[in-house]
Amino acid sequence: MDWQYEGPPNSVHGGFVAALFDQFLGVAQKMTKQPGFTGTLNIRYLVPTPIDTDLRLEGWVEKIDGRKNFLVSEMWAGDTLTARCEGIFISASMEALKKLRNRYHQVD
Fold it and tell me: Angle CA(38)–CA(43)–CA(30) in degrees, nearest 5?
């Protein structure tokens, strides 16, 4: 993430850090075999995430409780842990996903 993502000087804006976690964990929830939607994201900003630096995200499924998928992710800049995220994702039925997909493609 380079200068267009800057918030504090030489650091990634926290909103972009949150968006990156949301996207990363949204894809990672495929591991649960229960696709769905973001319920909550709880982000801890530990130190400023530097701009124009390679970032590494690691993630894992903490647990599954019915339709709720609990996932965790960490963001690293080199050897420095910059942020940590815990997310709850709510699975949706294939029927609900199809309805959403077709919502704006229906002809009246």
Answer: 35
User: Residue 46: inside a domain, yes or no?
Assistant: yes
Q: Quick: pLDDT tens for 17-32.
A: 999 999 999 998 888 8
**Three-class secondary structure of residue 99 per DSSP:** helix
Total domains in the chain come to 1
Q: Which two tokens stand for residue 101?
A: 């997909």
Helices (H), the chain: 14-28, 94-102
Single pTM value for the model: 0.86
**Number of neighbouring beta carbons within 10 Å of residue 99:** 11
- Structural domain range at position 66: 3-102
